[in-house]
Design goal:
The protein is 75% helix and 0% strand. The longest helix has 34 residues. The protein has 17 helices and no strands. The chain folds into two domains: 236 residues, no CATH class; 161 residues.
Amino acid sequence: MSDHIEFIQKYLSPIFKDEGFQGNISNLFFNKILSLLRSKITHDLPKVMNHPEVYSHYVRELIQFDNKMLESFAFEDLFISDLILKSEEKFEKWIKVELDFALGRLDTLASSPDSWKIRFQQSIENDKIPVIADLFVNLLKAITEYYRDILFINVKKDIACRLQKPIIFSFIEKLNIQMDKSMNDKLKNFCMVCNSARFVFDEIESWKDDLLFLSIDENDFIFNDCLSLLNSTLNQVALAIVDLQLESYKSFIRPFYRKRRLSFNEIDSQQSIADILLEIQKFLDSVGQFVEFADFKSISRSLVSGIENDIIEFAINPFHLNFEEAAALNKIIVEPLTSLFANYSSRYLNKLNAIIQLLMLLPSDPIIKEIQNSIDENNSSELFKLTGLTVDVAKQYIQKRKN
């Protein structure tokens, strides 16, 4: 067509116009050639479809051909890729071929131990992306660019739903399987799963502003369900990481809670409070080394929240702590924890510190009066908002003081 277009426009077009032809002679030529080509494709397809690799390449060639016709000649009267893309049987066969290739590639990646290592560990400092996540994102990008050139919007949407989404769902399943594996270094394994989920999540999230996906559906991002599942995986692996340290903390600290007067010096233990604090610090430093900053913040906050709730539930609520006991709890556990977590965020342990301060201040008449007023008026004062206490819980604390 490129070889003939100049000859057609320069020599044939004037002749046709002289003979009264009103149409575009170039488009007439293109239509005739494409009709021949469509007949050739229709004849070849039954054999081509029996060879998956050939069929995959064949469809790509047809898509590229249609785009070339549009870009080079602005010709859109007749296409050839629709012979497959708009035939349910042939389109379904092609989707299956591409999906099988992609899932096979993903299975190979997931089964390789090297895939769960950092991709550019030797060449890029602080890189935290596992090989599997990097290669998977490249696969997604390749598929996206592949069908970006397709001229039919409804076909693009079908490919996103029937090809890309199943691949993403399969990847998420691989992450969950990897998370459940018994590993010697559980923390590092969890962190690699976390980083993989984050990397893929961020990539798909970036597609929201892509004109391709806006053209498919400008009102509802087609991959929202994938983002939701990836976010769920991120939450699950964050909790799994936190549980590694939280369980160790609980097993060590709860025997201390059971002492009525919190006389820690009386407990014969090989591990001191300083030891558990050092263990927590090493844990947080390791997590910070392995995971991205956004996920580190989430994980560290969850750990603090777990420790905070554990102290409130098992050290404060079950016991009628008096002023001295509250002060001891504050000095021996809460203050060191607050100091430790201050290295990571100033907002940590706010609720616990407020409750401790409340317990220590309760003998003070003005504080009791403020709480009593809030109880009588059945509303929350600033003190309530600070501590997160409810009126009912405040009543219990006041009653304990009176008793």
